[in-house]
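Before the break, one more example. Copy the sequence into your notebook; we will annotate it together after we see the structure.
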Amino acid sequence: MMDYMQIGYLIVVPMICFFGIVGNILTLTVLLRGPFKVPAFIYLKGLAVYDMLSLVFIIPIGVIRTECGSNKSVLSKFYEAYVYIPVGDIFLKASILTTVIFTIERCSTICFKGRYSCGAKHSKNAMIIVIATGIFSVVENIPTFWQYQISENTTEIEPTEFASSLYFTIYGWIDAVVFQFVPMVILLVFNIILIIHLTSHRKVQQQLHAESLTEQKLYLEQTRVILMLLGIIILFLVTMVPSSIIQLIGYSTEFESEIFTTFQITVTILISLNFSCNFLLYCALNKRFLRTFKTLVFCCCSNRVHPTGETTNKVVLVNHPRILEKALDLNSPDMMESNEPSDLVANGDSK
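Here is what the structure looks like once it is written out:
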């Protein structure tokens, strides 16, 4: 009968990872379309890339860790000690930082009425920030490359002398604070703020008159962004808080112990879920994302869909980045400009 390790590493983790990789590829495919070519969604594109790369590094670890002790190949041990643990953490940390930065930026714009440039310059800045988070994660994670080693006598993975030093202990606590505790607190606080804002936001939306078509569409689009952000935050908290607690408990146990192994499996499953479920969240919480995805699928299947995304006898919103950009920042100067219904809707009123 298969034990918890075999079920977790050989069945659960690979299934989650393969689903997550496909989901992140689909997410990138949808977000690269016209409706999502605005600065706010650059963070989500970066998040999808970091999540996908994290899952790629997680997949081999299941097979490696289910190999029997001394039967593990040197290559397998090398991968775990010198590739998976240090390099895999880089993308995990980059994903966490991107989530936090996106949350702060969107909340500042949506909830606190911050004023941001919505032009090409802002898009470039968003891209620079996403890339900078990756570079920072690489630099910050350098000490972990000397955390474990393969013993020359037993060929087992063991902590290095450097990993037992005071310097690495201090680094470990700083790392935990920067990439675990602080993000959790920030996301928890902003989650509460977003929920409060969403409640008042819906009241404003209900008070808009029927003739205020432009305002209705923009408020609706902003609500979709808030829901997507809420989903990302809740998913992060549900999966990463338990994994962080388990990791801290695991630090006090031996690397090859049964307790540590159980902790490892549980943490790996939770982290894999965090990296894999954003596509489902976007489909469930953002109708524009789901509609664009359906258009892509239909286009691939029939090759008869109009290039703009219009379908016969069906009401759709025009994929207009300018309108979506205004929706993401209702306080921009451009928001005060009047827009004709034709800028927003094709083939009649949108429902």
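The chain has one domain: 4-289. The mean pLDDT is 74. Try to locate both features in your own notes.
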